[in-house]
Amino acid sequence: MAQPSTFVRIPKERVGVLIGQGGETKRAIEKMLSVTLDVESDGGGVTIMLSEKAEDPSVLLRAKEVATAIGRGFSPEHAFRLIHDEETVLDIIDLRTIFGRSESDIRRVKGRIIGMEGKTRRIIEELTDTNIAVYGHTVGIIGKIEHAQVAREAIQMLIQGSQHATVYRFLHRKRRELKKGMLEIWEKPED
Fold first, then answer.
1. What structural domains does the chain harbor?
2. Cβ count near 182 (within 10 Å)
3. What does the pLDDT look like over 12-41, one tens digit per residue?
4. Which of 48, 92, 111, 159 is buried deepest, with most CB atoms within 10 A?
């Protein structure tokens, strides 16, 4: 019987990052998720197969997410957050769906999201506890679901032309709301 598998294509220039120095990143993914990665170096195709040791077939989807995250510009360390925490998600915004093939609009919006010397991206990451990668025509977000949603909203505000100061205020308000929500969870009296 054939082992279950899935396939993802990543940019050729990111294949080396997925494999890692001496194959260490690829081996780490295979070991942590009990999968086998078959990477086509020349085409960027990655076939992910379940190993005999795997008890849960859903690890195929996690492995596909990790490979996709690395392909979309994340470092392996940031992509590994998807393995270590069940509540962590990968959210990708494809700027081509918003701007079509207009390279100048995509370049301009990427600049707004990154900011001067990476300031805007860093602020979004810090206030939402997420990791953000702006690569090619996509913006990737890795973080807990609620945090990734806030980061996505902030990025969409920037895409729609909101001023940076407005986005920063929005992020500070959302951060307070998230913290307040966490405190309420901890303070609820038991019945």
1. 5-75 (3.30.1370.10), 88-187 (3.30.1370.10)
2. 11
3. 999 999 999 999 999 999 999 999 999 998
4. 48
